[in-house]
Amino acid sequence: MVEYKFVEKKVGIIGCPFNGGQHRNIGVEKGPKKLMEFGLIEQLEELEWGVEFDGHHKLNELRPAEDPNIGKLKKPLYVSRVAETVSKAVESHLKRKQVALTLGGDHSLALGTVSGTLSVYPDACLIWVDAHADINTPETTKSGNLHGCPVSFLLGIAGKVPGFEWVNKILSPDRIAYIGLRDVETSEKKILKQLGIKAFSMHEVDKYGIGKVVEMALDAVNPGRTRPIHLSFDVDALDPTVAPSTGTPVRGGLTFREGHYICEAIHETGCLVSVDMMEVAVPDHEIYPDIDDSQVFATVTVGLSLIRCCLGETLL
Ligand SMILES: NC(=[NH2+])NCCC[C@H](N)C(=O)O
Ligand SMILES: [Mn+2]
Ligand SMILES: [Mn+2]
Fold it and tell me: What predicted TM-score, i.e. pTM, was given to this entire model?
């Protein structure tokens, strides 16, 4: 039995139907509702967790009437307001000794979730599982999509951006480790190098195996397993054959088991306090005829089983 170092066996679910951090009309805002419909609460209760569900946050009400680009950044005010709201929700669950489980929605939400975690646990570390580094700054982003930028804001390297003044919990570069990277822009590679950030791409997963990679990632950011862990899981870290229904799929990703192993191993530390399950999309058939029901089903169910593994489901 795993002993939980920071929480009681209670989890708060924060539903975040949000797509403002990216430009595709692929239904990434419909992910949270689908994850709930497929039985998340019942599954966590089966694992003997006390479950509190906020209801899905009405994030579209935060959309400002006017929200001009700032430089390249698209919908900056909307993303900022949403992230601030989400940060408060995470904070409130953590303060009550619950695990905060955030369902997305696009990955710009993690600006909120990680800020919320850091405000309750300033010494927390971050494991970011993703095909992408999401570390572009307002200067380096080509797309202007804020879901490609949250980590730069968290590290305090985004510079001053109007509306984002509330982001003041700074993550030190030696407290973040990446797993699963394979679509990293040149500008992002430079930042990773400059800051000496521990990043395990798919190359390292191939070379060392997932068991060793997770151990090295944890040793880097949480050597004594004494710090709280925030896990931010972008479902596109998984190979598109495993999780096809997402906005920015990239070939050559984590297998089903590799994804689950990461969650199982992090659970075993007893340090997990906050989990994001992001970028699960539910597209409209008319707009995305290439993604069918069985692919949405595969993606939603893998998201659910990753969450269960984070919260202690084991194979035996
Ligand atoms: N959370 C994600 N899926 N991010 C994809 C980011 C893609 C690209 N690097 C960008 O900055 O736009
Ligand atoms: Mn990604
Ligand atoms: Mn991401």
Answer: 0.98
pLDDT at 287 over 90: yes
Strand ranges of the sheet holding 229-234, from the earlier edge strand across to the other edge: 50-56, 10-16, 99-104, 272-278, 229-234, 125-129, 176-181, 198-201
- In the structure, ligand 3 is a single-atom ion and the residues with CB under 5 Å from it are 107, 130, 132, 134, 234
Can you list the domains of the chain with their CATH numbers? 10-310 (3.40.800.10)
pLDDT digits (tens, 9 = 90+) for 153-208: 999 999 999 999 999 978 999 999 999 999 999 999 999 999 999 999 999 999 99
Size (the chain), residues: 316
In the structure encoding, which two tokens stand for residue 224, read together? 């004594």
- List 132, 230, 260, 267, catalytic entry: 132
The interface pTM score, or ipTM, of the predicted complex is 0.97
Dump pLDDT digits (tens) for 10-41: 999 999 999 999 999 999 999 999 999 999 99
Q: Which of 134, 264, 276, 313 is catalytic?
A: 134
Neighbours of 48 (CB within 10 A): 9
Q: How many CB atoms lie within 10 A of CB 270?
A: 15
CA of 84 to the centre of ligand 1 (A): 20
Span from the CA of 108 to the centroid of ligand 3 (angstroms): 8
